[in-house]
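ligand=zinc ion
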Amino acid sequence: MPELPEVESLRRYLVREGLVGSTITSVKLETKPESPGGTGTIIGANNANGQTITNITRRGKQLALELNDFALGVHMGMTGQLHFLLPEEPEPRFTRALFTLNSGTRLALIDPRRWAKLQRFDSSAEAFDGLGPDALDDRLTADDFAGRFDKRTGQIKQLLLNQQLIAGIGNIYADESFHRVKISPARRANTISESKLKSLHKAVRESLEHALEFILNNPDEFGRPYIVDAYDDRMQLHRKLGSFCPRCEIPLVTKKFGGRTAYFCTSCQK
Ligand SMILES: [Zn+2]
């Protein structure tokens, strides 16, 4: 699932390719926007005709295209991608929405599993409603970060994935951060010392920044961010069966927390 680094690299790609300042001249939405297999929704996007994109902002995993009169929230779900199409490129399979811009360029929302959400909001603030501060926001200090967790009795893994507390951290970068700072995902947050929680904040920032840099340096052949599969060199922790702790060289274990599988080392993560 695209997490903060993947969505931020996507935002930068959209800016780099000139989306800000472009006017939407036509919107084509798939006629069957929802399927039983997914929770994806496309709501109100057809009213974007004639609107100019004035800014592209992000909080956590949520993107907002700010338009003249409203904002379009874009959440990539599990498999969503936003791609500018080449001039003669046929519409890709699984295109759920196709925007044509005044330059003639087309922007496609492609999503095989239909979990992506494209939704009209009155403003970008409304699109971000309910989300905590962005995990890479410089205004989120180590003290603030620790203060969001240190009184809570829940397991740190589930708390770190709670987008209302901090936005942008998903399963993969949470596991990566816990490993870097030697915390077990099963630890109750209120049993972790303040200094350890501050170290976790630093580890979260470092793993997200490292991943962002990796993605920016490894675009696909058309310069598009390669965002779906995160099981590669951007991680110290290799999330597959039979992989080893890079510190202890013993097999990692897996355990489910709230339906999400954690990979961790029972020797160095306490
Ligand atoms: Zn270990």
